[in-house]
Amino acid sequence: MSDEAPLALSDADLAAHPTNLAAGSLAGRSLLVTGGGGGIGRATAWLAARLGARVAIAGRRLERLTPVAEAMRQQGLDCLAVTVDIRQRDSVEAMFDTVAQSWGGPPDLLVNSAGGQFPQPAIDYTEKGWRAVIDTNLTGTFNAMQAAARRWRDAGRGGSIVTIVVSPRGLHNVAHTCAARAGVKAFSEAVAVEWAPLGIRVNCIAPGTIRSEGWQVYQPHVRKRYENVNPMRIAGSPWQVAEAALFIGGPAGGFITGETMELSGGGHLWGETWTTDKPQWFRDATKAVDPGDST
């Protein structure tokens, strides 16, 4: 795929993109997705609504959410836009209050897609930069997960949580998000056991290189390498992540909890993903193993 190709599916694309999931498979259910204004979150919201779910998309900026919600409503789909800063517990509680007031109760499925990071060697992180990523990706995810679980418990009903993490093997120069997402994965495995008696399932999706708006933070010459970092030698799409999230989080995944589904084209089994220029010492080591390698 050319690097000049669009970095994201448009709302019109998402309204018509084919899916392998059964029509009506989420009928009568409700979904709340954080980070719903773009990328994986937006694709997940569109797919869930097309499969029959009521959908709420949440994010920090209403100006990103509103066009998505309006586009979905124009297709006859049920979508609510809610602002939230997942780093702030009061804001998370207000988000769930808004959803409950609109729907009469908590959502059936929470998809945690909100997050962010920036490529930089860990030795150069500032304390502020480190905290920004940890507070969003780890603490923010905890805030949403616990708030959802408490509401399901108090309502005497179960629910399902899916969190987007990362496929960390060979992922370099984003150590802060690797640390945060590893914490989310460990927390999810722990509470999958603790919350099972409440009827709550907890799982993660670990995407590899996914071609979306997030690619814009990486230099073009860095992005060109991304389609060769897995044995399939392709990049994935937000739509593929959305299908996986709704499979494992929806009725079809009803006997799955405490799992992390790798969605990396096999990238977790080999290779390396440098989010910045590959250091010369690594190039030298590669050539020492394979003198004919010119990378």
List the helices and strands and how they pair.
Blueprint: H1 11-16, E1 30-34, H2 39-50, E2 54-59, H3 62-74, E3 79-83, H4 89-103, E4 109-112, H5 127-155, E5 159-164, E6 171-172, H6 175-194, E7 200-207, H7 220-223, H8 238-249, E8 260-263, E9 273-274, H9 280-289
- Please count the helical segments: 9
If you average the pLDDT, what whole number results? 90
Strand order of the largest sheet: 3-2-1-4-5-7-8
Helix share bin: 40-55%
Residue windows where pLDDT falls under 50 for at least 5 positions: 1-5
CATH superfamily: NAD(P)-binding Rossmann-like Domain
Largest sheet: 7 strands, parallel
Shape type: globular
3D architecture notes:
The structure is a single chain. The chain is α/β, with parallel strands linked by helices. It has one domain: NAD(P)-binding Rossmann-like Domain (Rossmann fold, 3-Layer(aba) Sandwich). Helices cover 41% and strands 14% of the residues. The chain is built from nine helices and nine strands. The strands form two sheets. It has a seven-stranded parallel sheet, with helices on both faces. A two-stranded parallel ribbon has the order 6-9. Helix 3 (62-74) links the parallel strand 2 (54-59) and strand 3. The longest helix is centred in the middle third of the chain and has 29 residues, at 127-155. The radius of gyration is 19 Å and the shape is globular. The chain starts with 10 loop residues before the first helix and ends in a 6-residue tail after the last helix. Mean pLDDT is 90; it is low at 1-5.
What tags apply to this protein structure?
single chain, 295 residues, alpha/beta, seven-stranded parallel sheet, 9 strands, disordered N terminus
